[in-house]
Amino acid sequence: RSSWLLLAPLLTPPVPVITASPCSLCPEGAHRFQWIRNLVPEFGISSSHVKVLSSPAEFYELLKVQIKTAKQRVVMASLYLGTGLLEQELVDCLEEALEKSLQAKGSSNLRVSILLDYTRGSRGRKNSRTMLIPLLQRFPEQVRVSLFHTPNLRGLLRLLIPERFNETIGLQHIKVYLFDDNVILSGANLSDLYFTNRQDRYVLLQDSPEIADFFTELVDAIGDVSLQLQRDDTVQMMEGMVHPYQGDKMAYCEIANRRVMEVINSARTRQELLHAKTFHSSQQGSSLLSQQGSQASGGLKPEPDTWIYPLIQMKPFGIQIDEMVTETLLTEAERDARIYLTTGYFNLTQAYMDLILGTRAEYRILLASPEVNGFFGAKGVAGAIPAAYVYIEHQFYSEVCYLHQQERVQLQEYSRAGWTFHAKGLWLYLAGSDLPCLTLIGSPNFGYRSVHRDLEAQVAIVTENKALQQQLHQEQEQLYLCSGVVSSSTFEQPNRYVKLWVKLVTPLIKNFF
């Protein structure tokens, strides 16, 4: 009854796009990706500070431990916070940490900032807002809850489009969980499924103050252009800020662009200065060490062997850095390089599909079988979404076969009884290498929504360290072990039957899920 409403945003004029041209890839060495620092800050760290997690339970336990031990800051960005017992336990951990901080000093040093999506976080009578209001009421000076509302959901469309369907227009989709100087990057939301049997990816960056500062500032910037949750469950904008759906859309998007780009550019400048200072110090290092003896060497940081690049995508604000970097990685991947790409929702943009089909690297694409799709068994129209993904997958597979690319581009379906699949990202193996030197991990799904509608963030992790490369390789292998290779016979199975109406409707609405 409301499918036609989903087409309305296509009729509205888009915000002007701001782009920049990336440099060509450096031809030599494992770290041939330094061109990315022309677009975003580069954070050099030791690989010993990076830990790859593998299970939802491990992720959940780590969240609780990190909250309980945080002294200065807890910053959490997610699509939503669930309303079950496991989520309540997280809120209780936050309350306990705030109380402990308050008792220790008399005035708390701990600050908690939570960024969620407005539409998803407001769904139903019991929702993310009602879960967090007790914290706001008890610790008004220490807790901030920001609810991002897309500027594209406004006017008549906002009045007419029903709950749940309004989430198709645009969301806050970033998932970053930060505790003092420790940062968890993931695609997982703060909901019980993601703590139990919904497979995702998770990486912990320990003792990384510069990276933690960057993501704190990024969440603050988005928070500043978001609605602020009040103690009485109302929301209001910060004083002087343009309203996302009542104010002028162009003015709002320009302000949001400026705030986010200030964070990216100031961090980039800081890191460049730090890099120049470190390089200058290392030039004099040998003579200083010979004068000061072995004590000086004990105080020096180890040379970084791993580099972190935050990739931001916010097309509503004209920011498309992640898209630019991803397209360049796919374009420049050499013959005999291997790219393992995974997404819980296989609905690639046309640009990504064209690059995969038209470039030289080998691709192993992992996607959800219908039974592990998050919408499997859903009520109403949403229940047909897995069939729509089957249809999109079949179309892509047919194109692969038509171009005789089955050997180079292989689809694999994740299947695991009692589980759903939500992992996303890629691993890049250079030609002749058995281990990946680069991974992308974060919130984007490589689909139209990720590129055009939602707020997204992931990181590129580049490493020369064999032990970390082995961790990333094992993560990839563990996910792909639960998969089967897609062939023509896959689509002949009874559970792959797609009704005619789904085939007709999918091209019209595929940009909304």
Q: Can you offer a commentary on this structure?
A:
The chain is an alpha+beta fold. It folds into 2 domains: 43-267, Endonuclease, Chain A (2-Layer Sandwich); 304-511, Endonuclease Chain A (Endonuclease, Chain A, 2-Layer Sandwich). The chain has 15 helices and 21 strands. The chain has helices at 56-69, 85-105, 118-121, 128-138, 155-160, 192-196, 209-224, 249-292, 294-299, 321-332, 350-358, 385-402, 448-453, 466-480, 500-509, and strands at residues 43-45, 50-53, 73-77, 111-117, 143-148, 176-179, 182-186, 198-199, 202-205, 227-229, 235-236, 306-314, 319-320, 338-343, 362-368, 409-414, 420-421, 425-429, 438-442, 456-463, 483-485. Strands 1, 12, 13, 14, 15, 16, 18, 19, 20 and 21 form a 10-stranded mixed beta sheet that branches. The chain has a 9-stranded mixed beta sheet with strand order 2-9-7-6-3-4-5-10-11, with helices on both faces. β15, α12 and β16 form a beta-alpha-beta unit. α7 packs antiparallel against α8. The longest helix has 44 residues, at 249-292. The radius of gyration is 23 Å and the shape is globular. The model is unreliable at 1-27 and 293-297 (pLDDT under 50).
